[in-house]
From TrEMBL:
Monomer. Its EC number is 2.7.7.7. It comes from the Bacteria. InterPro entries: DNA/RNA_pol_sf, DNA_pol_Y-fam_lit_finger_sf, DNA_pol_Y-fam_little_finger, DNA_polymerase-Y, DNApol_IV, PolY_HhH_motif, Rev_trsase/Diguanyl_cyclase, UmuC. It is found in: Cytoplasm. Residues 26-206 form the UmuC domain. This is DNA polymerase IV. It comes from Sphingomonas endophytica. Binds 2 magnesium ions per subunit.
Length: 374
């Protein structure tokens, strides 16, 4: 069903499985440092240099970092001042989301030649169900190799791909040989592959959950697999069934061509509780910048801003406000967040966490329709 494909950095050497022929064949395509790579492609003087898209040395957050910057520990969603401290030679460039969207459309047009079921996750990544070999290439890995070659030829950019029998493992695999890599995980090897990985790499396990798992002695997929479902339900509630299956390489979710984004946002937990009004406002500004980066990456707009605040005693408050039209800019989201935050201050003991989320997401056709006057 799958065969090993010779491609750059294709280092996952798993044996050919003897499994049922009805298993899905899923590809996860993930562009390599997408925003930063576009900037390096279009500005030759940036090639080989550490580049951060978004923010500046004094404020904002990093939307994307080139691989040269990642060597220094610079990551997306990192405050720009921290990034500049880690990498003094870091070059900051403003984002050009119109260009990224145009390149994304080129890439997604390529996908349509190989699959009907395409589930975009953002401008730079997507799942494809290639169970039907529409171009008679012989295997899912051969399809992934051809897609990557066409992306390189058409855009000058590299993409990494994970090929497997479900979405969960395909996404893990796409990150295995980055950048410019291909990794194939057949069904017979899925559970063993998952067992070797740190749980913090699992899609659906964020930093807070990973920290909780570490306290419970769960560090790898094997550790998670060895915990009974009753233990997982006691500690992780409704998330337990997903975790139980994932640790065994099981994921029955189909590729959904009409995947509807419901909300996009960001939140930050602080090392020390914030009490100073200026520090709180600066933190909210950083959270708004991180949230808006994700909004742009998802290429959506919405009507509702929701603020999340966690006090020192772990009490969590949420407040929301909707607008008549649509929230169009980062500044508008930030202003709404400030308005929601103000009545909650001062907060006894300080603020442990702040979050901002955009919801009430509108579809393209809804955005194009003018508001009907009364």
């Amino acid at each position: 069903m799958f065969r090993k494909t010779l491609a750059s950095r294709a280092a996952c050497c798993y044996t050919r499985p003897s499994t049922v022929a009805t298993a899905r064949k899923i590809i996860h395509i993930d562009m390599d440092a997408f925003y930063a790579s576009v900037e390096q492609r279009d500005a030759p003087e940036l090639r080989g240099r550490p580049v951060a898209v978004g923010g500046n040395r004094a404020r904002g957050v990093v939307a994307a970092a080139s691989y040269e910057a990642r060597v220094f520990g610079v990551r997306s969603a990192m405050p720009s001042v921290v990034a500049a401290r880690r990498c003094p030679a870091l070059v900051f460039v403003p984002p050009r989301f119109d260009v990224y969207r145009a390149v994304s459309r080129q890439i997604h047009a390529i996908f349509t030649d190989y699959a009907d079921a395409i589930e975009p996750l953002s401008l730079d990544e997507a799942y494809l169900d290639v169970s039907e070999d529409r171009r008679a290439l012989g295997s899912a890995s051969a399809i992934a190799a051809e897609i990557r070659a066409r992306i390189k030829a058409d855009t000058g950019l590299t993409a990494s791909a994970g090929v497997s029998y479900n979405k969960f493992i395909a996404k893990l695999a796409s990150d295995q040989n980055k950048p410019d890599g291909l990794c194939v995980i057949p069904p017979a090897q899925g559970a063993a592959f998952v067992a070797t990985l740190p749980v913090k790499r699992f899609h659906g396990i964020g930093p807070v959950t990973a920290e909780k798992m570490a306290r419970l002695g769960i560090h790898t997929g094997a550790d998670l697999r060895d915990r009974p479902i009753e233990f997982l339900r006691a500690h992780f509630g409704s998330h337990a069934d997903y975790l139980h299956g994932a640790a065994r390489g099981v994921d029955d979710r189909p590729v959904r061509a009409e995947r509807q984004t419901k909300s996009v946002g960001a939140e930050r937990t602080f090392d020390t509780n914030l009490t100073d009004p200026a520090e709180i406002d600066a933190a909210l500004e950083t959270v708004a910048a991180a949230a808006w980066t994700r909004v742009e990456r998802a290429d959506v707009r919405g009507r509702t801003a929701t603020l999340k605040l966690r006090r020192a005693d772990f009490t969590t408050l949420t407040r929301a406000r909707s607008v008549t039209g649509v929230i169009e800019t980062q500044d508008q989201l930030l202003d709404l967040g400030r308005g929601l935050l103000a009545p909650l201050l001062p907060t006894p003991g300080g603020i442990r966490l702040l979050g901002l989320t955009l919801s009430g997401i509108l579809r393209d056709e809804e955005l194009k329709q003018p508001a009907l006057p009364l």
